[in-house]
Every structure is written in structure tokens, then in C-alpha cells.
Amino acid sequence: MTTPRLEIYLDESGALCIAKKERLDAPSRVILSVELDELKSLNPADGAYRVGGTVLNVLRLWHKEEFEDWEVPGLYEKP
Predict the structure, then answer these.
(1) 19 φ, ψ to 5°?
(2) Which of 1, 5, 41, 71 is at 20 to 30 A from 78, Cα to Cα?
(3) What global pTM score does this model have?
(4) Closest residue by Cα to residue 17 from 5, 26, 8
């Protein structure tokens, strides 16, 4: 697999996790962990916004040229 990369998974407690791995010789680092009950308590658009916003913002940091024209809102900003 290539790096940098994001990993999205459910951990052993059932929380949705997003981790980033920036180098092959470094461990993954969790940047977002949300209990599924908390995610389910949001309306679907807000849940998608929270997860999708995290993913797009990290990718924008790593791939500045590809995302230079995108205006990806912050994680907790509302559209």
C-alpha cells in the first residue's frame, strides 16, 4: 500500500475510527473516533458531513495541488 493513506474501520469497541498513516515505517494514528451510537444520533447528513469533512480535509492537506480549488469546510462548521 502507498503512504500517506487514511484507514477507516470499526475498532474493537465498535467505534468508527479514521486513522492516518503518513510513512511506511510509522504506525497509524487515530485522528477521529466516534461511538456508533453518537454517529447514529445525528441525522444522516450531519454524520456524513462529519466523516466526509474529516477525510476531505486530510486529503486536501496531503494533495494540495489536486484540491487547491476546493473549499472544504472545517469539521464542525455548518454549511
Answers:
(1) -125, 150
(2) 5
(3) 0.81
(4) 8
